[in-house]
Structure of Short-chain dehydrogenase:
Amino acid sequence: MFRPAFSSTGEEVANTFAQEIQGKNVLITGTSVGGIGFETARVIAKHANLIIITGYDSDRLKVSEDAIKKETPSANIRRLVLDLSSLVEVRKAAAEVNTYPEPLHVLINNAAAPIGPFKLTVDNLESQTATDYIGPFLFTKLLAPKLLAASTGSYVPRVVFLSSYGHALIPELDLNKIVGKPDEAKYHPFYAYAHMKAASVLIAIELSKRSGGRINAYSLCPGQVYTNMHQREGSIELFQQIGLLDTDGRPSTEKFDAWKTIPQGAATTVVAAFDPRLNDHPGAYLSNGAEANKERAAHSSDPANAEKLWNQTEEIIGEKFTF
């Protein structure tokens, strides 16, 4: 039996739940080498029937596929170009997935936009809002039929949303920061980040509720992990300003000493996707490989906030999320 710990790795978890992973088809967003999504795909690919990896850059997707297959030649990998910052592109990618003959057992919403200066997308949404929340909401909505097709008398499909302990750093939730009109004058990159991570927690709760037990959704904190996200131009200086990175752009232990490796960072994602002990805990928030609802901020545990957010997000995408 898997006993979660801070130091647990994604590979250890995947090996523990190999039987649950076998035969499953899994889609993971944001799978570039050097990130948590890639590590998640790498360890699951050793056991799963099919892993669909996604990203907005086809060349980087090929690098990820090659890296996984070099280690596990038998891995069944399918590449999907997905730009979560564009609603048109999200619909295009979802339409492609819906042509696949296989059902979808697990959807892992891992991708995130760079934490950086204010930027509008083609849909006039703030970049983090689009990539971290609106795009994944729409993508999940469009793939719901594929997920439901994986249901059996003994299996409930899962949707996983990567959040962060950062969701609790805001004292209260301002839904207008998530679904309101973008305002550059009031934009702060880390404030926006916290709201997007809060949205991930809330939407996991509401998705589990609205599906009526037909889809189990979970949110999680992977831990403080140094990934390719911290190495992007325009983001390094911001992380240095808050003391997360040192003057060399490396992880700082002066203010943040609880750093995890990327393999450790992937552990809780794999737990959320496959641990059968979560079957009776839909909507749960996880940290360090275990249910951690007590660490969930009050504003991100409020069912009224979850319902309002869901309804207002449907207005943005222009369609209802039905089951």
Summary: Residues 10-223+261-315 form a domain with the Rossmann fold fold (CATH 3.40.50.720). The mean pLDDT is 92. The CA atoms of residues 216 and 290 lie 16 Å apart.
